[in-house]
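User:
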Amino acid sequence: MIKVSIKETQNPTILKFEFPDFITQNESFEFKNIDEAKSSPLAQKLFYLPFVKTVYISGNFIAIEKYSIVEWEDVKDAVAEQIEKFVNEGGTIVTTDENKIKKQPITVYGETTPNPAALKFVVSKMLTKNAIEFKNIDQTGASPLAKELFKFPYVKEVFIDENYISVTKYEINDWQEITLEIRSFIKQYIENGGTVLDENFIETVAAEENNKAKEFDNLDVTSQQIINILEEYVKPAVQADGGNIAFDSYNENDKTVKVILQGACSGCPSSTFTLKSGIENMLKSMLNDENIKVEAINA
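Assistant: Predicted structure:
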């Protein structure tokens, strides 16, 4: 008889149900609804529970994200019993081959960015809601895709956000020599079910977002205003160019705003002009303070 262990995660809405052995082989699955879960009879059964929002299956566990209509304390034991009953009666957790057959083809195309060393590869599906940057292969624990990209000798940095991957290259190769190779690799990797970002990263980011919300409430009013301006007016334009910008700090004494540049923006020759002529002028105008200065920290 298989018994599952209930484990809390850093995200209070997500609970893990761990098995004594692996239930998938080097694959991870995420299902947002019962239609997406055709390759997992167990996930489909779980979606009959009205509070189930998302089901993740990876390694030796099933993680479930719930809606707020219930508390885990009230339902977790019943969910664990249902999972155990299903498996012990011979139910299939994931039909891997069926999942592969049903994979939908995607498109990937390259877009130039203001940084000549970075190219933005846009994918026809959402990859993540949380931006993440990798400066080297040792940092890629959260992203098997980024790890594979670093195996190309000309890849210097990788940045993943929403539906695109920004790749920064070394000078050893020109883009015309390597663009097709990278584009084809990303397309095949995702179509074959490769993991872009794993579930553990999703949990960690969710916890970080909760911490950021608390930190925001503790900031001074000017810092809060700066963050809101960056999020609403600056970040969308920066993301369109394959990068990201994040608030670091505001010094009340010398009126200096420090921001973190990521992706294609990091090390971009035109980033200084953008900061001074664009972001700095915008903050001066919207905060009505001509003494505001903006400095960049390359992540």
